[in-house]
């Protein structure tokens, strides 16, 4: 969940070393990869606090969501779709926490963590749309979801293996892929419609992500990274609420 456009601010004295893994060797390290961003101690503490809260909440919320799916719906596809969302949530927060919170390591390893952090965002976007597509069902929803996953996997691969060439397109691609999921809410996109409360929550979550990008790019603003991650965390759990809300609506009233 870090700034996906190029290297972070360098720390003086950070020296490069050869790649430590096969992946790092296959994807050459960008020149002058920093050991850690040059944020103040207070900024680092604030960002760490946001990450710790996010990971702690996710560790509790992810299994709860799967249990809710089993109790309220009980069908294999819905449980699988919710499990994909939970896995994407944990992957994104875990990769971000590993990159931002681990002690300084060799530059090749840190560069690898940075790339995985950025790549996980694409997978989280596709994972978020998965339970909604499963819930509405139908060939149209399946086709849309498949297209999103193909784009997400392609974006993740580019962020890992070609980060410099994909640098300027990263943020627009994140936003475009996220908002493309709104096609699932169009009339006729699937066999069932999603509830109004679900649609409102999804729109709010999308707007939070989009507005948060302003702080992601405002590098001269103090605490910009912690603020950005705060927006990501709030938006993530708005989407979580949307999934749980939709399952609750269907459990009480059946498909809309």
Describe this structure in words.
Pfam families: HlyIII. GO terms for molecular function: metal ion binding. InterPro entries: AdipoR/HlyIII-related. With 256 residues, the protein is an all-alpha fold. It has a single domain, classed as Rhodopsin 7-helix transmembrane proteins (Rhopdopsin 7-helix transmembrane proteins, Up-down Bundle). Helices cover 70% and strands 0% of the residues. It is built from eight helices and no strands. Helix 3 packs antiparallel against helix 4 and helix 7 packs antiparallel against helix 8. It is globular, with a radius of gyration of 19 Å.
List key phrases describing it.
256 residues, Rhopdopsin 7-helix transmembrane proteins, mainly alpha, globular, disordered N terminus
How are the SSEs ordered, and which strands pair?
Blueprint: H1 22-26, H2 41-72, H3 76-101, H4 107-136, H5 139-161, H6 170-180, H7 196-217, H8 224-253
Helix pairs in contact: 2-3, 2-8, 3-4, 4-5, 4-8, 5-6, 6-7, 7-8
How many angstroms separate the termini?
A: 35 Å
CATH architecture: Up-down Bundle
SSE order, one letter for each helix or strand: HHHHHHHH
Secondary structure tally, helices: 8
Largest sheet: none
Strand elements, count: 0
**What's the overall average pLDDT, rounded?**
83
- Shape category: globular
What is the helix fraction of residues, given as a range?
Answer: 55-70%
Provide the structure class. mainly alpha
CATH topology: Rhopdopsin 7-helix transmembrane proteins
CATH superfamily: Rhodopsin 7-helix transmembrane proteins
Relative strand content: under 5%
pLDDT under 50 segments (min length 5)? 3-36
Question: What would CATH call the class?
Answer: Mainly Alpha
Protein name: Hemolysin III
Main location: membrane
Transmembrane segments: 48-72, 78-99, 119-136, 142-162, 169-187, 193-218, 230-253
Membrane topology: Multi-pass membrane protein
């Amino acid at each position: 969940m870090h700034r996906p456009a190029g290297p972070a601010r360098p720390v003086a004295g950070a020296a490069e070393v050869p790649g430590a893994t096969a992946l790092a060797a296959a994807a050459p390290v960008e020149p002058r990869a920093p050991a850690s961003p040059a944020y103040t101690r207070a900024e680092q503490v604030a960002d760490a606090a946001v990450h710790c809260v996010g990971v702690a909440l996710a560790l509790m919320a992810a299994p709860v969501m799967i249990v809710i799916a089993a109790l309220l719906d009980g069908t294999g596809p819905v449980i699988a779709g919710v499990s994909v969302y939970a896995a994407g949530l944990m992957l994104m927060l875990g990769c971000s926490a590993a990159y931002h919170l681990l002690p300084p390591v060799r530059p090749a390893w840190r560069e690898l963590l940075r790339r995985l952090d950025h790549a996980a965002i694409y997978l989280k976007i596709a994972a978020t749309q998965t339970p909604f597509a499963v819930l509405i069902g139908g060939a149209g929803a399946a086709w849309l979801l498949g297209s999103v996953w193909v784009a997400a996997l392609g974006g993740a691969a580019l962020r890992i293996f070609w980060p410099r060439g994909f640098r300027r397109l990263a943020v627009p691609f994140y936003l475009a892929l996220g908002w493309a999921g709104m096609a699932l809410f169009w009339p006729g996109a699937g066999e069932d419609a999603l509830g109004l409360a679900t649609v409102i929550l999804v729109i709010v979550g999308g707007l939070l992500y989009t507005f948060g990008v302003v702080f992601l790019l405002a590098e001269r603003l103090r605490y910009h990274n912690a603020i950005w991650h705060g927006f990501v965390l709030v938006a993530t759990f708005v989407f979580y609420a949307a999934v749980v809300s939709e399952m609750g609506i269907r459990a009480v009233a059946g498909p809309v």
